[in-house]
Design goal:
By secondary structure, the chain is mainly α. The protein contains five helices and no strands. It is elongated. The model has no long low-confidence stretch (mean pLDDT 86).
Amino acid sequence: MSVRETLARVRAVVESLDDEPPAGTPLYDPVHVGAVLVSVLAAVGALYWLLWTALVYEGGVFVKAGALLRLLGGTPAAELGYEGPWNRGPFEGWLGTVGALFLIGVLLWQLRSEWRRAERAGRGKA
């Protein structure tokens, strides 16, 4: 059973319990507005964390990429500031940066696949 099928079943159960709104009531529920607000704040916080970790944390990806290129060019690691596990110089925090880049890649891949699914569904209806 997929997530969409589960959500469709839950929605059907909730809609069966829901009464028709009386005439003159607004077409939104303040609880839904609050839920949307909290969801947007959580999404913005997650995006901020990902971008901050990838671009700023311990120098970010650009400092690490530059140091890696210099290392591949023949510069000794000690000249870059590497002193062992206690002081990694520009490679400090590389695990967090790589993790954030991985999560950004997964997020972009999911957005791409959702975009393509919507595009295929749109072509089928036209």
